[in-house]
What does this fold into?
Amino acid sequence: MSETLKIIQERQSARVPFDQTRPISRENLEKILEAAKWTPTAHNMQNFEIIVVDDEAVLEKIGNIKSRISEEFLRENYEQLSFSREELMEKKTGILGAMFPPEWVDPAKIAEAVKKAAPTPLNQSIRGSPMLLLVIYDSRKRAPASRGDVLGFMSLGCLMENIWLMAQSLSIGLQIVSVFSAPPAETDIKKLLGVPDYMKIAYTIRLGYPKNATNYLRVRRDIKDFTHHNQFGNRGI
Ligand SMILES: Cc1cc2nc3c(=O)[nH]c(=O)nc-3n(C[C@H](O)[C@H](O)[C@H](O)COP(=O)(O)O)c2cc1C
It folds into this structure.
């Protein structure tokens, strides 16, 4: 297998606590940011800024900010769930319901769960990470003629993958955390870090060395399930 394909296949979401006492070295951070620098972006707009947070006091303050779960998230999250390993292996897309609290995975209980849910400190998402990368973008701009700035958002996705693959090649664990991007948490974080109003948090990256191995079922569709040869519907290659 080629080295590139190996890194791509072995990259995974490190949804585990990180070792708070093991920082990311300056040298490794520079490699990760060098990978970020060479991201392809629409019109080479390089439509991102990255806030590197590794100061313990700042991490603690972010950790104390509270997020709220939304009914919209829980309902749409439910649509992506499987309820057994067999179901997930059969579907080949989505994630396991067992990753979430029981009241989040029962549509009849979702509305009540949202009402009852206490605000959650972001500490529960940071989970000992010694470094966060907050990827932000200027919401006033868009890639030329790109409705809804789809091309700009794709560019931010390319940035994510460049960073992720570099981290993987350095054996650094990485998890994307979307909860920082939703109000009220986003508003509080921006205030804390002095981010101007017009900048939005695209996503947050937690980096670190996992305290325990990541061990969950990962599925993907087969190549023939997403390719069409010369004509739509003509499956496979
Ligand atoms: C735009 C985007 C947002 C994501 N948000 C989250 C998130 O908030 N929390 C999380 O644990 N994983 C998040 N992920 C990771 C995906 O859930 C994950 O990549 C997918 O389930 C496949 O698993 P793998 O990364 O282990 O291959 C996100 C991924 C992308 C591309």
Summary: Residues 12-13, 15, 95, 175-178, 203, 218 surround flavin mononucleotide (CB under 6 Å). The two ends are 20 Å apart (CA to CA). The chain has ten helices and eight strands.
